[in-house]
Amino acid sequence: MGKAADSTVEREMHSSELEAVYRMTKAVISAKSEQEALDSVCKLVVETKLAKFAWAGRPDELSKLVIPIAKAGADKGYLSKVKVAFDSSDLGCGPTGKAFRTGKPNLVRFIETDECYKPWRDEALARGFRSSVAIPIVLGKDVFGSLTVYSETPDAYSTDTVSLFEEFASNLALTLRNFRDKEAREKAEKELRVSEEKFRSLVENTQDVIISVNMLGKITYISPQFSLYGVRSEDVLNKNFIDFIYPDDRAGLLADFAKAMVGIKTTSQFRVVTPNGKVIWFEEKDNFQRDKSGRVMGITAILRDATERKKIEEERAGRQAELEKKVTERTAALKQEVEKVELLSKARDEFVRNITHELKTPLSVILLDTELARRAHARGKEAEFNEFMDTVDRNAVRLRGSIENVLELSRVGTMTEYKKEKVSVEKLIESVIDVYGPIAQKKGVALEVKGGNEPLVILGDPSLLPYVLTNLVSNAIKFTSEGSVAITAERKEKFISISVSDSGIGMSEETQRRMFEKFFKADPSAPGTGVGLTIVKEIAEGHGGRIEFKSKLGKGTTFTIFLPAG
């Protein structure tokens, strides 16, 4: 009879325990959060008489303590008085600490005598706790937390009860894992939303264009800023990026894209051609899109408008090139000036030597032949006397010509305005023939005048024009050993042209190139100062005219001067 009664009591207890677990399971399933589930479990454990006090805790890795997060029942400040650890210290040797470390339930049948309960015994007994069981909340190898219950009855929990608690804890762990996964997912989604909002705000407020391109070169994203260039996203999405690149820049950018696809970062500068034909300079920096294995699947690039900077750089380069060009030109001009000064200096020295020679030589001849003529006259040698006087006469003319050249050079070089008077060409030619006709005849050269009978008049300076014709005729006779020298005058529109042609030695190309240079002489040993043609050219141009020539070495020379008709 007694055994039957005990069996009935055990069945009733087991039934009440199953009912309690059922209610706890139902509460956990209907809970909206981890905290609500643990609060409900602790509360039902006490309400169903399974324990006088129950609490749930979570591990704190920093302090190694089990932190209470839910409780129910008559604790009377128990949890504020005690500390429970999950390591191997004295505070971790109790049922809760062992449950955390082993992942298995830990039962204390008699708190009053259990040596492992010593750190908490006095506080537990003071509150009527006589036995306790700690159940770890485990999923796989992870211990989420613990549920610890206390009974006022010694040895209150059987092995079956502990197994029932353990089975319930497994279901509870699944629920808590779901809650934590959901919480982590919601947190991640929230962080993603915040991140996306920050990204969107950054993208929408930056002046840069952000573009994503997959490994095939297709555009998968483009930021709204591209609309500022008159481009809609639908105009470029899913199209190959290279189609919008300026033709000259495509090869270089494709090479950079190939590098990016193997993980080599690049910075590129290129031009984009928008659908409306506008050309924009961009500077681009790559950021890689990678899969879980780290392989590059595409790039997200930041494009910064460099059009204005490029324009400034091109303008600066243009100004620099222009400045360098001007410096080069100025340097060349200065070099030419230096060379010219050096040539003038050299010519001046040559001129000083020549003019010295030109003055001293005829002067020495005049002095010598004058003395010889005086002696011949004293001896009554009339023929010798006349010969010496002819020599004196020729050298006097030569001396006068040299002095006149120097004076004319000085005078013409300082003149700013020429007289404009009517000068008869016929009389001008006659005056030259009178002087140089005999000289040409004596040399065996025919001095001829060609042209019509039309009276020709020049409008010019009567004091300078004779020098022009005299110089040209003098040079022609000087460089002609046989043949003739011809003077031809005729009207040509607004000018009178006077040509002096000879059948003399002609001029080399070097002489033709330099003959108007001041102090230049084709033959440095020849008589003359080397300034005659320089003066002739300045006089012609000073009158608004010009001088031309034709010459061939060994075939003679023709000089033609054009002067305003009067």
Describe it.
This protein is an alpha+beta fold. It folds into four domains: 183 residues, Beta-Lactamase; 100 residues, Beta-Lactamase, CATH 3.30.450; 93 residues, Signal transduction histidine kinase, dimerisation/phosphotransfer (DHp) domain (Helix Hairpins, Orthogonal Bundle), CATH 1.10.287; 150 residues, 2-Layer Sandwich (Heat Shock Protein 90). It has 14 helices and 17 strands. Strands 2-1-5-4-3 form a five-stranded antiparallel β-sheet. Strands 7-6-10-9-8 form a five-stranded antiparallel β-sheet, with helices on both faces. A five-stranded mixed β-sheet has the order 12-14-15-17-16. A hairpin with a 2-residue loop joins β4 and β5. α1 runs parallel beside α6. The chain is rod-shaped and about 185 Å long. 27% of the residues are buried. The N terminus is likely disordered.
Supply Rg. 62 Å
The DSSP helix count reads: 14
SSE-based structural type: alpha+beta
The level of helicity is 40-55%
Strand order of the largest sheet: 2-1-5-4-3
The N- to C-terminal Cα distance equals 170 Å
Low-confidence stretches: 1-9
CATH class wording of the largest domain: Alpha Beta
Instruction: Name the CATH superfamily classification of the largest domain.
Output: GAF domain
CATH architecture call of the largest domain: 2-Layer Sandwich
Number of DSSP E strands: 17
